[in-house]
Write a structure and sequence with these properties.
- With 277 residues, this protein is mainly alpha-helical.
- The protein has one domain.
- It has eight helices and five strands, in the order αββααβββααααα.
- The strands form two sheets. The protein has a three-stranded mixed β-sheet. Strands 1-2 form a two-stranded antiparallel sheet.
- α1 runs parallel beside α6, α5 packs antiparallel against α6 and α6 runs parallel beside α8.
Length: 277
Amino acid sequence: MKKFLVTTISVLTLIACSTSPTGRKQVLLHSSSELDRMGSQSFEQMKAEQAISTDKKVNAFVQCVADQITPNVNSKVHSGDWEIVVFDSEQINAFALPGGKIGVYTGILNVTENADQLAAIIGHEVGHVIAQHSNERLSSNQLSQGVLVVAGVTMAAKDVDNKALILAGLGVGIQYGVLMPYGRAHETEADIIGQDLMAESGFNPKESVNLWKNMAKASGGSPPEFMSTHPSHKTRINTLTKHLSKTNPIYAASKQNSNCVKPVIPAPKAAKNLAKS
């Protein structure tokens, strides 16, 4: 099993053919046009299946923040207009998809205290798109599944005892040793890209730290970091605090000023699900 894990990591490293905005090596097996098509299709499906907010003030607020951020995204990421939809749900979540799609759930507005904190959320989600994390996640999953198939065929050919147990262990090893750290790397990278983007767009990057303090209060506890695809709240807060040395000067030099005013949001009726994107 150890040899297979080493082989998996080696393969992922050797075929890394791209570099992320923060300098991290990536495995990207899909074209941008393919991801854009998948993102657009998924977004249309979500709009058809989920309730969309009709609150004009809430929609105007979210649109205002997004409109201040998206012009600062490189046109190579998306060259057209961005579509922003506010979903009427108490879920504390937001997302961005390839193809210029942004979804914000009304529940997250109960955690974001102002426009700057919403900008941190939107910047983070757009950061996933900028860094092609969807492409990377799909690619790494495909490669990992391929390794499991090869392992099964190899052990079957050699009549290895306890094949099912070994494959199960290998699957767990790949999950916690490769795929989950990949997820944490994505989240940290999106945090950094998002903080840069919000500062460039005229939003105070210090509010990204305050946002995650709010998220920590709202979480009610989380699994150990090594068991999660996301960094702990403490890790995120520390990372974003350290990165302020780079984003504060960007914010000071920005020629944009935020004029987005958060409307009064009705108190939530029940407990929410925290963001997973």
